Amino acid sequence: MMSLQQVPARKQRGIALIMVLLVVALATAMVTALRNSAEISFARTANVLMQQQSVEFALAGETYARLLLKKDLEEDKKTGELVDYDVESKSDPLNEVWGVRAVQIPISLTSGIEGQIDDLQGRFNMNSLLKVTGGRDASGALRTTVNALALDKLNRLLDSLYDEEGSIQRPPELHREHFVDWLDDNQDSLNFKGAEDYEYLGKDPPYRTGGTWFRDMTELWLIEAMTPEVYRALQPHVAFLPWWVTQVNVNTATVPVLMATLNIPRQNAEEIVAERIKIGGFKDLAKDFMQLPALAGKGTASQDLTLASSYFQATIRSINDDSIVRLLSTLYRDPNDGSTLVLQRDYGKKFDLTKQIAILDQ
Predict the structure, then answer these.
(1) What is the pLDDT of residue 30?
(2) N- to C-terminal Cα distance for the chain?
(3) Which helix (H) or strand (E) holds 79?
(4) pLDDT tens digits, residue range 76-117?
(5) What DSSP string describes 268-294?
(6) Cα(240)–Cα(124) distance, rounded to whole angstroms?
């Protein structure tokens, strides 16, 4: 066998050249792989940073909404008119700026924040269907009972729904009791019209009732006999607040909510809304609202009505180049000092701004 020393010098140089080329090729492959890995890592880090920046922009929008609400209460106390409404007043069209318009705040040429604030006390509180009576049962669950007044209001609300094409036909098998049975933690069908686990476990896929307070609109989609038409029509008129919140703000309530709350026909509710727009919101519940011709002879009780609200929803969208973050925040405003508390945040849900947008200068 010929040793390396016996290989001619010319052939040795060829072998050495091949080895050098091999080493260079391996080194090039390693550098290329490291570069690709680094570029991917840099891109991933840049995307994460951009996304996090978009989240911070959205939270900044939430903070701005909270400041607007606090300032609004301070202004209301100065004028002595503790009211919240979402229509322009002829005397002061921007008095309730949070309710009148959506806002858009440019940050740069490719980034910005836009959003609006909506009064949740202008809607029917689905969690008011049950009220806590105090104490807990043997299983540790809170003792609750059905709120009969709220149940009647929900029934009227379901009957008063309509969309752009006219009235929504409520399916005869969709009972108000279905919503109560979804909330309570027992398996007793209310009035023999409700729907407990035995109804839902037979579905594909099977599931159980919630057994606790509503937190989101999407839960209503799971209710027995719910239809897409009723779901879409119901969405603008319901809220998911603490069970004790029963007062409805007549300055922001929709026509179906007014019909359900006041037990009046649609024409009367539309007259109330028309008057509300005309005068720029009711300022006094007893003198302005309760004396309306549309309420004549109705004997409406005022304990479930209000002109000032404590619960709001901030709908915010932040744009940062190609990164978009959507945020729905449920806010509580203390009626005494105007301080605000975030009760719930929901990221990613699609929505549309429903109010005219005002662009704010930096």
Answers:
(1) 84
(2) 85
(3) helix 9-79
(4) 888 888 888 877 665 555 566 777 888 898 988 889 999 999
(5) HHHHHHHHHHHHTS-S-IIIIITT-GG
(6) 8
